[in-house]
Design a protein that fits this description.
alpha+beta, N-terminal domain of MutM-like DNA repair proteins, Helicase, Ruva Protein, domain 3, four-stranded antiparallel sheet, 28% helix, elongated, lyase, glycosidase, FPG_cat, hydrolase, DNA damage
Protein backbone atom coordinates (compact mmCIF):
# COMPACT_ATOMS: atom_id res chain seq x y z
CA UNK A 1 0.00 0.00 0.00
CA UNK A 2 1.45 3.42 -0.93
CA UNK A 3 2.03 5.55 2.17
CA UNK A 4 2.91 9.20 2.61
CA UNK A 5 6.66 9.01 1.80
CA UNK A 6 6.09 7.26 -1.52
CA UNK A 7 3.07 9.39 -2.46
CA UNK A 8 5.06 12.53 -1.60
CA UNK A 9 7.82 11.40 -3.96
CA UNK A 10 5.22 10.70 -6.64
CA UNK A 11 3.61 14.13 -6.17
CA UNK A 12 6.99 15.86 -6.44
CA UNK A 13 7.83 13.86 -9.57
CA UNK A 14 4.56 14.82 -11.23
CA UNK A 15 4.82 18.44 -10.13
CA UNK A 16 8.17 18.56 -11.89
CA UNK A 17 7.26 16.57 -15.01
CA UNK A 18 3.59 17.39 -15.62
CA UNK A 19 3.24 21.00 -14.46
CA UNK A 20 2.50 23.24 -17.44
CA UNK A 21 1.46 20.33 -19.66
CA UNK A 22 -2.02 20.19 -21.20
CA UNK A 23 -4.15 17.06 -21.05
CA UNK A 24 -4.93 16.02 -24.62
CA UNK A 25 -6.71 12.76 -23.91
CA UNK A 26 -8.10 10.60 -21.10
CA UNK A 27 -8.67 6.88 -21.53
CA UNK A 28 -10.45 5.16 -18.64
CA UNK A 29 -10.54 1.38 -19.02
CA UNK A 30 -12.17 0.63 -15.66
CA UNK A 31 -15.20 2.82 -15.10
CA UNK A 32 -15.62 1.63 -11.51
CA UNK A 33 -12.59 3.79 -10.72
CA UNK A 34 -14.59 6.95 -11.56
CA UNK A 35 -16.19 8.25 -8.36
CA UNK A 36 -17.66 11.51 -9.72
CA UNK A 37 -19.86 10.32 -12.57
CA UNK A 38 -21.25 13.83 -13.21
CA UNK A 39 -17.68 15.09 -13.65
CA UNK A 40 -15.63 12.30 -15.25
CA UNK A 41 -11.87 12.62 -15.85
CA UNK A 42 -12.57 13.09 -19.57
CA UNK A 43 -13.96 16.55 -18.68
CA UNK A 44 -10.37 17.67 -18.02
CA UNK A 45 -9.24 17.27 -21.64
CA UNK A 46 -7.85 20.57 -22.87
CA UNK A 47 -6.95 21.82 -19.40
CA UNK A 48 -3.45 22.56 -18.12
CA UNK A 49 -1.92 20.78 -15.14
CA UNK A 50 -0.75 23.47 -12.72
CA UNK A 51 0.60 21.36 -9.87
CA UNK A 52 0.60 18.13 -7.89
CA UNK A 53 0.28 17.70 -4.13
CA UNK A 54 -0.13 14.98 -1.53
CA UNK A 55 -2.90 14.76 1.05
CA UNK A 56 -2.20 11.89 3.40
CA UNK A 57 -1.92 8.86 1.12
CA UNK A 58 -3.90 10.62 -1.64
CA UNK A 59 -2.59 12.38 -4.74
CA UNK A 60 -4.05 15.60 -6.15
CA UNK A 61 -3.49 17.13 -9.58
CA UNK A 62 -4.56 20.75 -10.03
CA UNK A 63 -5.98 20.93 -13.55
CA UNK A 64 -7.47 24.03 -15.18
CA UNK A 65 -9.01 25.45 -12.02
CA UNK A 66 -10.30 22.06 -10.88
CA UNK A 67 -8.67 19.06 -9.23
CA UNK A 68 -8.21 15.42 -10.14
CA UNK A 69 -8.16 13.63 -6.81
CA UNK A 70 -6.53 10.21 -7.00
CA UNK A 71 -7.12 7.70 -4.24
CA UNK A 72 -4.47 5.02 -4.69
CA UNK A 73 -6.07 2.62 -2.21
CA UNK A 74 -4.26 -0.58 -1.37
CA UNK A 75 -2.79 -1.45 -4.77
CA UNK A 76 -2.93 1.70 -6.89
CA UNK A 77 0.12 3.44 -8.33
CA UNK A 78 1.27 5.44 -11.35
CA UNK A 79 3.43 4.80 -14.40
CA UNK A 80 5.06 7.56 -16.45
CA UNK A 81 6.15 7.11 -20.04
CA UNK A 82 7.37 9.44 -22.74
CA UNK A 83 5.19 8.38 -25.64
CA UNK A 84 3.33 5.14 -26.17
CA UNK A 85 5.81 2.74 -24.61
CA UNK A 86 4.89 -0.83 -23.83
CA UNK A 87 4.66 -1.37 -20.05
CA UNK A 88 7.35 -3.54 -18.43
CA UNK A 89 6.63 -7.26 -18.39
CA UNK A 90 4.47 -8.15 -15.41
CA UNK A 91 3.51 -4.52 -14.73
CA UNK A 92 0.05 -3.97 -13.22
CA UNK A 93 -2.68 -2.95 -15.67
CA UNK A 94 -3.45 0.70 -16.33
CA UNK A 95 -7.04 1.53 -15.41
CA UNK A 96 -6.79 5.12 -16.67
CA UNK A 97 -4.27 7.02 -18.80
CA UNK A 98 -3.77 10.76 -19.22
CA UNK A 99 -2.09 11.80 -22.47
CA UNK A 100 -0.20 15.11 -22.39
CA UNK A 101 0.67 17.60 -25.10
CA UNK A 102 4.40 16.78 -25.02
CA UNK A 103 3.74 13.10 -25.79
CA UNK A 104 4.08 11.90 -22.21
CA UNK A 105 1.51 9.58 -20.64
CA UNK A 106 0.53 9.18 -17.01
CA UNK A 107 -1.02 5.77 -16.43
CA UNK A 108 -2.82 5.03 -13.17
CA UNK A 109 -2.52 1.36 -12.29
CA UNK A 110 -4.04 -1.13 -9.86
CA UNK A 111 -2.43 -4.45 -8.97
CA UNK A 112 -5.22 -5.81 -6.78
CA UNK A 113 -7.94 -8.38 -7.37
CA UNK A 114 -10.52 -5.68 -6.63
CA UNK A 115 -10.53 -2.04 -7.70
CA UNK A 116 -8.93 0.19 -5.09
CA UNK A 117 -8.05 3.10 -7.40
CA UNK A 118 -10.49 6.01 -7.18
CA UNK A 119 -10.69 9.09 -9.45
CA UNK A 120 -12.51 12.27 -8.40
CA UNK A 121 -12.93 15.49 -10.38
CA UNK A 122 -13.68 18.16 -7.78
CA UNK A 123 -13.46 21.90 -7.17
CA UNK A 124 -11.17 21.60 -4.14
CA UNK A 125 -8.91 18.75 -2.91
CA UNK A 126 -10.93 18.36 0.29
CA UNK A 127 -14.09 17.73 -1.74
CA UNK A 128 -12.77 14.15 -1.95
CA UNK A 129 -14.57 12.49 1.01
CA UNK A 130 -11.55 10.64 2.39
CA UNK A 131 -9.36 13.74 2.13
CA UNK A 132 -11.91 15.87 3.98
CA UNK A 133 -11.67 13.51 6.97
CA UNK A 134 -7.87 13.42 7.23
CA UNK A 135 -6.24 14.16 10.55
CA UNK A 136 -2.98 16.01 11.05
CA UNK A 137 0.03 14.92 9.01
CA UNK A 138 3.16 13.93 10.98
CA UNK A 139 5.26 15.13 8.03
CA UNK A 140 4.09 18.68 8.65
CA UNK A 141 6.91 20.66 10.33
CA UNK A 142 4.28 22.21 12.61
CA UNK A 143 3.12 18.81 13.93
CA UNK A 144 3.83 18.79 17.69
CA UNK A 145 3.93 16.49 20.67
CA UNK A 146 0.66 18.06 21.79
CA UNK A 147 -0.93 17.09 18.48
CA UNK A 148 0.10 13.47 18.98
CA UNK A 149 -0.99 13.49 22.62
CA UNK A 150 -4.45 14.64 21.52
CA UNK A 151 -4.66 11.54 19.31
CA UNK A 152 -3.52 8.93 21.84
CA UNK A 153 -4.44 10.11 25.34
CA UNK A 154 -7.56 8.34 26.55
CA UNK A 155 -7.85 6.14 23.46
CA UNK A 156 -8.70 2.55 24.40
CA UNK A 157 -7.57 1.27 21.04
CA UNK A 158 -4.49 -0.72 20.09
CA UNK A 159 -1.62 1.56 19.22
CA UNK A 160 -0.94 0.15 15.75
CA UNK A 161 -4.58 0.72 14.82
CA UNK A 162 -4.44 4.33 16.05
CA UNK A 163 -1.35 5.03 13.93
CA UNK A 164 -3.13 3.75 10.82
CA UNK A 165 -6.35 5.66 11.51
CA UNK A 166 -6.35 8.30 8.78
CA UNK A 167 -8.83 10.51 10.62
CA UNK A 168 -6.26 10.78 13.44
CA UNK A 169 -2.89 10.73 11.65
CA UNK A 170 -2.73 11.17 7.89
CA UNK A 171 -0.46 9.11 5.68
CA UNK A 172 0.67 6.20 7.88
CA UNK A 173 -0.20 2.66 6.82
CA UNK A 174 0.71 -0.88 7.76
CA UNK A 175 4.42 -0.75 6.93
CA UNK A 176 5.40 2.52 8.55
CA UNK A 177 3.30 1.83 11.65
CA UNK A 178 5.43 -1.30 12.19
CA UNK A 179 8.61 0.74 11.70
CA UNK A 180 7.48 3.52 14.03
CA UNK A 181 6.56 1.13 16.84
CA UNK A 182 9.83 -0.77 16.52
CA UNK A 183 11.84 2.45 16.74
CA UNK A 184 9.73 3.66 19.68
CA UNK A 185 10.11 0.25 21.42
CA UNK A 186 6.35 -0.03 21.90
CA UNK A 187 4.04 -2.99 21.52
CA UNK A 188 1.59 -2.80 18.61
CA UNK A 189 -1.24 -4.12 20.80
CA UNK A 190 -0.87 -1.85 23.83
CA UNK A 191 -3.79 0.54 24.20
CA UNK A 192 -2.88 4.11 23.35
CA UNK A 193 -4.40 5.22 26.67
CA UNK A 194 -1.83 3.14 28.57
CA UNK A 195 1.16 5.17 27.38
CA UNK A 196 2.89 7.35 29.93
CA UNK A 197 4.50 10.70 29.14
CA UNK A 198 7.91 9.20 28.37
CA UNK A 199 6.40 6.59 26.03
CA UNK A 200 4.37 9.25 24.25
CA UNK A 201 7.59 11.20 23.76
CA UNK A 202 9.26 8.18 22.21
CA UNK A 203 6.25 7.65 19.98
CA UNK A 204 6.33 11.27 18.79
CA UNK A 205 10.05 11.15 18.04
CA UNK A 206 9.72 7.82 16.22
CA UNK A 207 6.70 8.93 14.21
CA UNK A 208 8.13 12.23 12.98
CA UNK A 209 11.64 10.92 12.32
CA UNK A 210 10.42 7.79 10.51
CA UNK A 211 8.06 9.65 8.20
CA UNK A 212 10.26 12.69 7.54
CA UNK A 213 13.30 10.46 7.10
CA UNK A 214 11.50 8.21 4.63
CA UNK A 215 10.26 11.20 2.62
CA UNK A 216 13.82 12.51 2.35
CA UNK A 217 15.14 9.06 1.43
CA UNK A 218 12.54 8.50 -1.32
CA UNK A 219 12.97 11.94 -2.89
CA UNK A 220 14.37 11.71 -6.41
CA UNK A 221 14.00 7.94 -6.77
CA UNK A 222 12.30 6.98 -10.08
CA UNK A 223 8.66 6.28 -9.35
CA UNK A 224 8.88 2.74 -10.73
CA UNK A 225 11.56 1.99 -8.11
CA UNK A 226 9.88 3.50 -5.06
CA UNK A 227 8.21 0.29 -3.90
CA UNK A 228 11.51 -1.60 -3.97
CA UNK A 229 13.24 1.24 -2.12
CA UNK A 230 10.56 1.17 0.57
CA UNK A 231 10.83 -2.60 1.02
CA UNK A 232 14.63 -2.45 1.23
CA UNK A 233 14.52 0.21 3.97
CA UNK A 234 12.24 -1.70 6.34
CA UNK A 235 13.70 -2.91 9.66
CA UNK A 236 10.84 -5.17 10.80
CA UNK A 237 7.99 -4.85 8.31
CA UNK A 238 8.13 -7.77 5.92
CA UNK A 239 11.07 -9.24 7.87
CA UNK A 240 9.30 -12.10 9.66
CA UNK A 241 11.82 -14.79 10.56
CA UNK A 242 14.81 -12.53 10.03
CA UNK A 243 17.13 -11.18 12.71
CA UNK A 244 16.28 -7.87 14.37
CA UNK A 245 19.02 -5.42 13.43
CA UNK A 246 18.88 -3.84 16.89
CA UNK A 247 18.94 -6.75 19.34
CA UNK A 248 19.44 -9.95 17.33
CA UNK A 249 16.09 -11.50 18.26
CA UNK A 250 13.84 -13.00 15.57
CA UNK A 251 11.24 -10.71 14.01
CA UNK A 252 7.73 -12.12 14.47
CA UNK A 253 4.36 -11.49 12.89
CA UNK A 254 0.73 -11.86 13.91
CA UNK A 255 -2.65 -11.27 12.30
CA UNK A 256 -3.98 -7.77 12.79
CA UNK A 257 -7.46 -7.22 11.38
CA UNK A 258 -7.32 -7.98 7.67
CA UNK A 259 -3.53 -7.76 7.54
CA UNK A 260 -0.43 -8.69 9.54
CA UNK A 261 1.94 -6.84 11.83
CA UNK A 262 5.65 -7.46 12.34
CA UNK A 263 7.47 -6.74 15.59
CA UNK A 264 10.51 -7.69 17.67
CA UNK A 265 9.63 -9.35 21.01
CA UNK A 266 12.81 -8.20 22.75
CA UNK A 267 12.59 -4.60 21.57
CA UNK A 268 8.85 -4.13 21.89
CA UNK A 269 6.99 -6.61 24.12
CA UNK A 270 9.46 -7.57 26.88
CA UNK A 271 9.87 -10.93 25.16
CA UNK A 272 6.15 -11.75 24.99
CA UNK A 273 4.88 -13.35 21.79
CA UNK A 274 1.67 -12.08 20.22
CA UNK A 275 -1.12 -13.79 18.37
CA UNK A 276 -0.86 -17.48 17.50
CA UNK A 277 2.72 -17.65 18.81
CA UNK A 278 1.70 -16.54 22.31
Amino acid sequence: MPESPEVQALAEFLDDRARGRTITGVDVLEFRAIKTRAAPPESLVGAEITGAERYGKHLDLAVGGRHLGISLGRHGWARWSQGREDPPEGAPPALATLSLDDGAELSLTDAGNWISLGLFVVDQPRDVPAVSKLGLDPADPEFTQADLDAVVIGRRKQLKAVLQEQESLAGIGNAYSDEILHLAKLSPVVHAAALDERERGRLFDATTSTISGAIAARRGIPIDQLKAAKVAAMRVHGRTGEVCSVCGDTVRSFSFGSTTAEYCPTCQTDGALLGADA
